[in-house]
Amino acid sequence: MSLIHKSNTQTLHLFLYQRALHPELFELHVRRTDRHGDYEVESWLINGGHLVRFRVEDQVLAEVVLDKADHLPETGLVHALPCLGEKEYEMEPVAGMGYVTTLQTEILSDNLFAATYHEMQDFARESGAVCREWANEDNANSLSLLDTQKYRKEFHLQSYHLLGELNLVLRTQSIFEIVN
Length: 180
Description:
12 strands, globular, six-stranded antiparallel beta sheet, mainly beta, single chain
């Protein structure tokens, strides 16, 4: 299958909300909860994307990456980015919380995608990252992975979404922080 044909389909988006989103809005597959100091983080993997909720007391920021977003609410939406090329966004601190993210997408050749896929499988096993693999109707293998680091006032998140039907790799790097 050629790269031109594979790249003619969906576009992922990254959304930032200043509110919690109900899990029923998503087809959730893997969940992890992290508590550290003054914050709590819930992370969910969905096919080809993720949802991360960062909570400090009663304040919440939620990052969502997915391709079909027409069912998401507009209430509380702070920013939306199409996941094409390289982008970055920094939110002005609000309610004692800050947020910054960068994202990069790349369409790879079949061989390079397969090598990257195996490298990410190994990374998930070695690091204990949250990971999910699945195949679509065409038996194209895909993988989503969340790697995190917890600090006293910051939560760092790296996500990798490898979509086999497109040979697409999306990498995001986000920092949620407590701002005094």
